[in-house]
Amino acid sequence: MRLWNLSWFLFFDSLLVISGLQTPESFDIDGGIDQDIFDINEGLGLDLFEGDIRLDGVQDRNSIIGENYRWPHTIPYVLEDSLEMNAKGVILNAFERYRLKTCIDFKPWTGEANYISVFKGSGCWSSVGNRHVGRQELSIGANCDRIATIQHEFLHALGFWHEQSRSDRDDYVRIIWERIQSGKEHNFNTYDDKVSDSLNVPYDYTSVMHYSKTAFRNGTEPTIVTRISDFEDVIGQRMDFSDYDLLKLNRLYNCSSSLSFMDSCDFELENVCGMIQGSGDNTDWQRISRAPGGPESDHSNMGQCQGSGFFMHFDSSSVNMGATAVLESRMLYPKRGFQCLQFYLYNSGSGSDQLNIYIREYSADNVNGSLNLVEELKDIPTGNWQLYHVTLKVTNKFRVVFEGHRGSGASLGGLSIDDINLSETRCPHHIWHIRNFTQLIGSPEGILYSPAFYSSKGYAFQIHLNLSHLTDAGIYFHLISGANDDQLQWPCPWQQATMTLLDQNPDIRQRMSNQRSVTTDPFMTTDNGSYFWDRPSKVGTVAFFPNGTEFRRGRGYGTSTFITHERLKSRNFIKGNDVFILLTVEDISHLNSTQDPSVPTPGIKDLCSEITCQNDGICAVQDDKAVCRCPVGEDWWYMGERCEKRGSTRDTIVIAVSSTVTVFALMLIITLVSVYCTRKKYRQRTSSNAVNKTLENEYAF
Ligand SMILES: *[C@@H]1O[C@H](CO)[C@@H](O)[C@H](O)[C@H]1NC(C)=O
Ligand SMILES: *[C@@H]1O[C@H](CO)[C@@H](O)[C@H](O)[C@H]1NC(C)=O
Ligand SMILES: *[C@@H]1O[C@H](CO)[C@@H](O)[C@H](O)[C@H]1NC(C)=O
Ligand SMILES: *[C@@H]1O[C@H](CO)[C@@H](O)[C@H](O)[C@H]1NC(C)=O
Ligand SMILES: *[C@@H]1O[C@H](CO)[C@@H](O)[C@H](O)[C@H]1NC(C)=O
Ligand SMILES: *[C@@H]1O[C@H](CO)[C@@H](O)[C@H](O)[C@H]1NC(C)=O
Ligand SMILES: *[C@@H]1O[C@H](CO)[C@@H](O)[C@H](O)[C@H]1NC(C)=O
Ligand SMILES: *[C@@H]1O[C@H](CO)[C@@H](O)[C@H](O)[C@H]1NC(C)=O
Ligand SMILES: *[C@@H]1O[C@H](CO)[C@@H](O)[C@H](O)[C@H]1NC(C)=O
Ligand SMILES: [Zn+2]
């Protein structure tokens, strides 16, 4: 009997391996094509204004300047049922980016006069500005569920046109008219500064609102050529807001602080961001730019900027076992009640030295603050800057306290901290740290699998990074067999995996990290009829951990065009030859229910009983009046007081083509930012000089 069982299993195994070979190992949500907003909309045959802007008939294109086209700082929204589950999760992540980097916030609609209805229409589009139409639509259709696409559409809604339609754009880019598909030339119009205010911000090649070089092209040659050739592959980025996008948004809306950003410190200034040395400890943290036992340089600048590059160092070699050094942040005032503390830590001391993170929380009863231990970081790897995330849940004013603690064993160095960031956001659940990264790009060895991780619900998973392609890097999410599989629900329902390639810019607000999310759909089937997200031990293939342990890996789900190699080498994605991929896998099942229409107010029933909404519209109370919320579909919607009128994309888009264009050559001087240390923000040169620098860094560790 036993023997029979065994041979049956063996037979089953070989079957699986064979079927694994027949079906491709990974499912590509983009089909191997990097589709920008404009490609998606064009593929659908939409002829929207400038590719993704919905104009209403009466729009006098004066929008961005007029006060009355602005939204309140907190924008009411409704996530319609038509949205894909993954899109709903990504929209909420995009709102978090607005909260971190701007003063714009979002709240579920509770009957305010004007709100944004985010729905799954055909393609990705929005109107420009607050149109005061009550329910204003913003479409996140198929394949629009990328975070930067959603940021882009909401920037339209907030009042922004495309960057290359600025009046002064011809000073910065050349439009190659003969390469544009005939009939699409109007998408390259410019507006004079009465219509589109550039808010005294220079032309921005890195804007998330800029077309890419391939927009509306007929053939393979670019339609937009940047006058500074370095920017040719920079335009059209869809990663995150650029610095100037933020500056403009913050100027238009008078933002002075963001909702969720709290503090950051790279220790470049002598005041160390108001941090204070603790009392009652044995020694102090020192602000230095190089420690005898390492690190040789700070993390912010990696020693590449002369006369700067500081970090804080606790020298554990000069104190006895058990000695401590305490560093406290300035007083901080939380708004949201949950925080993520991030920092880089370098250990050149003993393997048993540790860093303890405390919170000193102040309240009416506790004017001197009470100290609570949040996390003890032990077994800190030596010889490398390590990224740490610590989750805090503080509601009263507080300080963050870093306590270095000398362990046993010999120490020739100590602990160093740099690039601290504190924001009221959720920490990523896992970090995949990849070392020696550069040589893997484009090489056949560039097939990487992350260690095994567990989601908060207990699902085991793994991330696969494919760098072997010549131009693009691919990223995939795999469920794998894990310890809790017997207790979990299969096929795995609605777990959203968010994979972020971290831009290691020291300032969190200047980071443009590249992020993609995918969601497990329990109803999805593979070609042969089995469930895609079924238990890996049932549908997965055999694989091995580096330590030789066997496991089963489900098929990958992701994209082969996560990021181009060109962009991967830009900004601060690779720092000291290290790359960090942040991973969060969370349950979003709760998003599969209709958003509560409105907060029940007394008399809501009575008001709604007076009217009948047609065509399945739902009654809601807004400004003490009963109004109808009308249903929408792929490319149609109902409107009117009682949802009595039907509209569709085909009959309402009015393309106003004629526009006299006055080009103001205001910016004659192109401000060239030539300092090396800021230059690398746009594009890291791979000159032999830079290569040498990277190598130096590598040996330094
Ligand atoms: C694209 O270019 C070809 C060859 O120049 C031309 O025949 C065709 O009409 C163009 N198509 C569009 C949509 O402009
Ligand atoms: C921003 O400030 C200006 C000048 O103080 C004011 O006129 C304008 O209304 C403000 N805009 C918003 C959106 O608050
Ligand atoms: C707070 O500290 C001050 C000075 O150290 C002390 O005088 C005071 O009694 C303390 N208050 C409380 C409530 O512990
Ligand atoms: C957080 O932002 C600050 C801004 O100066 C930066 O110095 C610091 O390095 C950042 N920390 C991390 C861990 O990203
Ligand atoms: C990185 O490369 C160096 C030199 O080639 C090697 O000594 C080191 O072990 C590598 N590190 C990792 C983590 O692979
Ligand atoms: C990695 O990408 C290359 C090129 O796109 C592809 O041929 C290969 O099958 C991929 N490998 C895996 C393991 O996905
Ligand atoms: C479909 O393929 C999976 C593995 O990819 C295999 O376990 C399953 O038995 C197959 N189902 C059918 C109906 O062939
Ligand atoms: C091998 O590695 C896996 C994943 O990291 C781990 O779960 C397993 O316990 C390890 N096996 C042994 C024998 O160490
Ligand atoms: C939500 O759940 C119901 C029942 O579980 C299911 O029928 C429906 O398809 C789900 N909706 C979405 C958008 O996935
Ligand atoms: Zn757009």
Automatic annotation (TrEMBL):
Annotated active site: E153
Region forming the signal peptide: 1-20
Residue ranges constituting the Peptidase M12A domain according to the UniProt record: 62-256
Transmembrane segments: 653-677
A GO cellular component entry from the record: meprin A complex
Pfam family, any one: Astacin
GO molecular function, one term: metalloendopeptidase activity
Cofactor note: Binds 1 zinc ion per subunit.
Compartments where located: Cell membrane; Secreted
Top EC class for this record: hydrolase
Enzyme nomenclature, EC number: 3.4.24.-
UniProt keyword terms in alphabetical order: Cell membrane, Disulfide bond, EGF-like domain, Glycoprotein, Hydrolase, Inflammatory response, Membrane, Metal-binding, Metalloprotease, Phosphoprotein, Protease, Secreted, Signal, Transmembrane, Transmembrane helix, Zinc, Zymogen
Domain MAM as annotated: residue spans: 263-429
Binding-site positions, Zn(2+): D52, H152, H156, H162
Quaternary organization: Homotetramer consisting of disulfide-linked beta subunits, or heterotetramer of two alpha and two beta subunits formed by non-covalent association of two disulfide-linked heterodimers. Interacts with MBL2 through its carbohydrate moiety. This interaction may inhibit its catalytic activity. Interacts with TSPAN8.
Entry protein name: Meprin A subunit
Lineage: Eukaryota, Metazoa, Chordata, Craniata, Vertebrata
